[in-house]
Amino acid sequence: MSPFAQTLLVPALKNILFATDFSPCSQAALPYLHAIAERYASTVHIIHVLAPEPQIGIPLDRLPELDTERNVAQADMNTLLAGRSFGDIAHTAIVERGQLWEVLAPFIKENSIDLIVLGTHGRRGLRKLVLGSVAEQVFRHATCPVLTVGPQATHEGAADTSFKTILFATDFFLRLPARLAICGVVGAS
Fold first, then answer.
1. What is the pLDDT of residue 44?
2. To which CATH superfamily is domain 15-54+61-182 assigned?
3. Domain boundaries in the chain?
């Protein structure tokens, strides 16, 4: 074998984090998540992060059963899990409250996450400025590859995890993790 022969690198995607807000944009990422998890026999960790409760001057003990927002989110999580998306894939699910990255960072580390998958709303301009971008916050801070599925992505080719077009953004100076983005038709040459 030639010393210049290329070594084929096969990614090990044992643990995938699926961050969801239960929106149609998050739902659009499911076919891609399922295909990747199935191909690599991955465990999928599903997480929904609720905004932190506002700080008030008087600390109150809050009973979990009275936390309507958490109850709604847990019901949405149960609905997601009851669907066909995770039936044959090893998975865990959690609903957590806090600042997004303060919740995700330790979770990523503790669970040795190899890939983060999330849908993006594709906000631009003033809407992005006012509402922010969760996807942008995740891929700016993540230490592992991030797959974002845009609102215009089709499900055509989702089951084929041998992607033909991958956008890899880098600045060539910082050691940033790979950023994967599916913005349009996947599998098109």
1. 97
2. HUPs (3.40.50.620)
3. 15-54+61-182
